[in-house]
């Protein structure tokens, strides 16, 4: 696809190679206040990760051939402003490091005039498809050559605690939630969470920081429950199974409304 | 945005100007069988219409300034094959004609090797935003210069009859369903319909022809019901209000599974 540019940027005096992708913002990507939807932004960030990994030779298709698969564990996003409908945004990405169980991939989002407008930081595990257990990334030394050590300007995504309170909504996992690999699309949990939250509280504030923890996967046909709990300047969300197991947790740190 | 190409094609010996747009197919655009989702395809078709109209000076923003708005009335789509994940598709569009109440906009879909793989035909009305009544398009002679008279190779979308039978599912219109203009996104009705239909019947056949009639708009917070009814080689769908008014009807003509 005609999406990629190889790019170089200077980090602390060192020239580093990045991968850069263009995403147009279409009307369906913005909400009723004409602000980019978190789901649309997450979708572009995850597509960036997928395209970049594939070009480096360790995309999902390559890894499945090796019997392993990338699993998104945590994600944090902070935006200072949002790209507007009918403009292009650009996302640059690089791999920061490989730990034993998690690798860190960072992102910077640029608007159509190439101004940096936000950042994201993601943590990924590599899962053995047979045992369903995480793989020690140190046993894949070929991955290391893509790690450039450059940290994200934003804090890494943190562990989110359990959410208290009664479920606010339910959803049955359906055809449109299921991915090419038969799994529930990561973005869909976010869609269910935000749809369960009062729309006027989404419209009257902006999301200053968004954090996600992915824990278990909801399956097709499963009835999931969505919980949320407001606290001072924050809201915590969980998507749960009928017996209270968390599939996904999220935390929003709220800011004032977009100007 | 960097999406547009002006293109010329020969129709029956006449050189006609078309507008052409590129759309990458990302993982979230395909279903569990790796086939392009009808919702993703409709989204690209409607974005093509929106971009082309805007470049011609009668996009939704221009029209709202004149106190009128384009309303999609009917849509028909027929695909011979589908573009694959991580490839680009191209959609070309032109305005065929302007009647008194409806204008016809046609589309041809090309795969990444520029092979024509499908067609779409859409009918649009122009609605007065104050009276909520359709406008006589003959009172907008400025529109006429974009009509080139070239028909679509597929039949125009037909009127779809009422659907019999009990509702199969319900949905509450939520944050993620609402467009930049506060209206329910046209694609969402299709998502609700297909999500209410048995997934295995979607997976075991292909959609040979897809027809949509948009009748009324569902509002935020509204609880809608989804009905469908199978008949010989076809399925009819309706999204209805609690008191049985149809918001949207659709008909699928089924073909054998994709190879």
What Rg of chain A, in angstroms, do the CA atoms define? 18 Å
Sheet with most strands of chain A: 11 strands, antiparallel
Structural class of chain A: alpha+beta
Query: H/E element string of chain A?
Result: EEHHEEEEHEHHEEEE
Q: What is the terminal-to-terminal distance of chain A? A: 35 Å
Description:
The structure is a homodimer of 259-residue chains. The first copy, chain A, is α+β, with helices and mostly antiparallel strands. Chain A contains five helices and eleven strands, in the order E-E-H-H-E-E-E-E-H-E-H-H-E-E-E-E. The first copy, chain A, has an eleven-stranded antiparallel β-sheet with strand order 1-2-4-5-6-3-8-11-10-9-7. In chain A, strand 4 and strand 5 form a beta hairpin. The radius of gyration of chain A is 18 Å and the shape is globular. Chain A starts with a strand and ends with a strand. At the A-B interface, helix 1 and helix 4 of A face helix 1 and helix 4 of B.
